[in-house]
Each structure stands twice: as C-alpha cells, then as structure tokens.
Amino acid sequence: MSYTKSYMILHQCGRCRKKQPFVSTGKFRVNANKNKLDIWLIYQCRKCRHTLNVPIYERVPVQKLPRELYEAFLDNDRELAETYSSDRGFLKSRHFVILQE
Ligand SMILES: [Zn+2]
Fold it and tell me: How many other C-beta atoms can be found within 10 angstroms of the C-beta atom of residue 63?
C-alpha cells in the first residue's frame, strides 16, 4: 500500500469564529435527489469539531457514476477518502487553502 498524506485545510470556523485547521474525518456524505447525486468529503475543525463539507461531486446523474465508486462512497472507503484528502489539486480546485506544515 502506498503512503498517502492527508492535508489539513485552513478555513474560517463558524463556531470558533476564526481560521482553524480542518482535518478530514475520512467520511463521505452522499445525498441523492431526483437521480442526481451530491457527494462530499467531511472535514472537521481540529479544535471544536465543527464540520465542513468539501464537495466531490455536485448534481451528477446517478448513471454517470460507476457503481463500484458509488458504493465506496457509501461505505466510507478509507483509501478513497485518503485519495481525496491527499490530493492538493483536488482541494485547490475547490478553492480551499491547504495548511502548510
Ligand atoms: Zn472550530
């Protein structure tokens, strides 16, 4: 298994009312609405655990998503979650600020 590094996101926390590091929970949230799917990777404030949803798919037709991938999201597949949380390009494309260590 290859080593992956999950990045933290620097984000304004609605509860702390200041910028905090957010860490991946490794959990996905899947929402189905009239054949369209929204999928997020859930992050949480390292201090107060306030959650932040990072969008992976937005309003994608169910049939466009491979069955295996869909089930991996539903199962909170750990490797899949790490694939996203360690992908700088993905996080940047969602306009999140990666916390440099
Ligand atoms: Zn917080």
Answer: 8
